[in-house]
Amino acid sequence: MSRWPDTRFLALAGARLPIVQAPMAGAGGVALAVAAIKGGAVGSLPCAMLAPGEVRAQAAEVRAAGDGPLALNFFCHTMPEDAEDGAWRALLRPFYEAAGVDPHAGGGGAARRPFDAAHCAAVEDVRPALVSFHFGLPDEALLARVRATGARIVGNATTVAEARALAARKVDAIIAQGWEAGGHAGRFLMDPPDEQMGLIALLPQIVDAVDLPVIAAGGIGDARGIAAVFLLGAAAVQLGTAYLHCPESLIMATHRLGLVGAAAEHTAFTNLYSGGLARGLPTALTEALGPIREEAPPFPLAGAALAPLGFKPHWAGQAARLGRPEGAAALTERLGREALALLGAKA
Question: Whole-structure pTM over 0.90, yes or no?
Fold first, then answer.
């Protein structure tokens, strides 16, 4: 039996290892979740860009592949009203002209949907082990419906104040998301972005502030990082970029190459792809325009104008170069084994 310093998350989730495979829309999916679960982790499905029927179908695929804890992840942002994207499209005009694309095209793009009643009905049908939320939590009526399924509720905090706010709404566990993490920062209290802490400062302060299992996320790329955050009080880790290296991830070849090259040492926050701040590798778009532009409409609307141009983000955290190509099940098992050895425990 594994003897981790804090076993609260293991009891909560029913996993063999205190590892959560991060959802990662566009990169994670059924195959990655299945492999992570087989390795002993909590497997996650990113659901913010899925229709409710797709949530049900993908969850059924995961369940059909074997037993183990499944987490569904949703966004809780508020859709902006009447956002103007004229300045954004004007900035992109040279790209439209080079591609021979109508600058007024592209009303679509990948939709990031806030959690609603239809998604909640899908959760009620799936009854996952965990439901995690990014950008805060849904309203109390929806949250009560999720809780009634028996699913454990996990919130994401980028500050100590956010952790306290999540605890006040009686979540079961909290993700402490450090500055180093790849993808979108899940800020919801709107403190200045440049005040967000790195994980080594954020984690112990959240652990001290709330009496809940805390899941460390951001800059954890190997067993050394896992062992370190357990010493800081974590009850589990959430790994995203480490899983991007796995063959089960859905990322493109260029993204995969970037994870192991010099670009991996230069991740930065950008608002170009969605309008929200998200950490990723440099891309042709960020190199041409710079990572932050005030012309980009607010989250999640910036992506609509980019859709006809084919630009894709290469999300990654600051520990990208610590990863290596490896099957997700083998990666999970190895990281758990090596971290326990560093902690002086036995599996």
Answer: yes
